Amino acid sequence: MMNKRLRALWLALSLASLQLSVQAQAVDARDPWEAMNRRIYAFNDVVDAAVVRPVAQVYDQVLPSFARTGVHNFLGNLSDVWSMANSALQLKGQATAETLMRVSVNTVFGLAGVLDVATEMGIQKRKEDFGQTLGYWGVPAGPYVVLPILGPSTVRDGLGLPLDFKGDPGQNVNDAATRTSLTVLRVTDLRASLLKTVDTVKEVSLDPYTFVRDAYLQKRENDIYDGNPPSDFDYSDPELSGK
Fold first, then answer.
1. Residue 144: what are its φ and ψ, rounded to 5°?
2. Contact 116, 212 (CB under 8 A)
3. Contact call for residues 72 and 119 (beta carbons, < 8 A)
4. What's the burial of 93, exposed, middle or buried (CB within 10 Å: 0-12/13-18/19+)?
5. What is the pLDDT of residues 43-79, one digit of tens each?
6. Taking Cα atoms as reference points, which of 152, 204, 153, 185 lies closest to residue 52?
7. Which terminus in the chain has less CB density within 10 A, N or C?
8. Are the CB atoms for 108 and 115 separated by under 8 Å?
9. Three-state SS across 172-225?
């Protein structure tokens, strides 16, 4: 009888040890704060469903397509100014010159950027931010983190956000009401452009959190390497998150 109990206890301990081992292996090294991140992700999802998504839907339905395109182009022209600065910080001479040309052409001939004349002329658009600049100079991404309201990020990208906000020409306008309006417009424009994408991810993904995390981290590495990461680059290795 005692032997049976000992065998049962041994079996229970073995199963518990196996379960703990599997759980330990399942932890993504890039996301050590997953429990916290999931809670913030859920909070952001509630805010999005209650406020951001409905506003974006109204914006998408009420504004004509040409007007939404004009707003998107205008905001993109503002963003190009900061992209140009970050290209310069990364010593990318050609990218800096081409982005300067984009801003000049769109501002002068595109009604302050409402019309994207530069793209029609074949001048490539490049998006650069300070997180990419830090990555370019070898600063590791650090752990994945979900920021309240702002969404997916990493420690490196999060540290770069204050400078990204400061570098946005729309945030340097003296009038507070104008600054707020531009911020709301930028968020609305971005969310409206993702209406179908976000809905699709939630419908087809078994775990939308994991899908968003993996997609974000892979995109950021592609951004840092200008779309050409090394062929042996391991997206799951947090030590390879900077050049």
1. -70, 140
2. no
3. no
4. exposed
5. 999 999 999 999 999 999 999 999 999 999 999 999 9
6. 185
7. N
8. no
9. HCCCHHHHHHHHHHHHHHHHHHCHHHHHHHHHHCCCHHHHHHHHHHHHHHHHHC
Q: What is the pLDDT of residue 123?
A: 97
Domain ranges of the chain: 29-240
The first and second tokens of residue 187, run together, are 């968020």
Q: What are 101-127's pLDDT values in tens digits? A: 999 999 999 999 999 999 999 999 999
The model's pTM is: 0.83
What is the tens place of the pLDDT at every residue in 6-38? 555 555 555 554 454 444 446 799 999 999 999
From 195, 198, 201, select the one nearest 57 (Cα to Cα): 195
Which residues, listed in sequence order, are joined to residue 151 by a DSSP beta bridge? 147
Listed in sequence order, the DSSP H helices in 90-194 are: 93-109, 117-120, 130-136, 155-167, 176-193
- Rounded Cα gap, residues 19 and 15, in angstroms: 6
Q: Do 194 and 23 contact (CB within 8 A), yes or no?
A: no
Kindly write down the DSSP assignment for every residue of 33-87, as one continuous string: THHHHHHHHHHHHHHIIIIIHHHHHHHHHHS-HHHHHHHHHHHHHHHHHHHHHHH
How many other CB atoms are there within 10 angstroms of residue 97's CB atom?
13
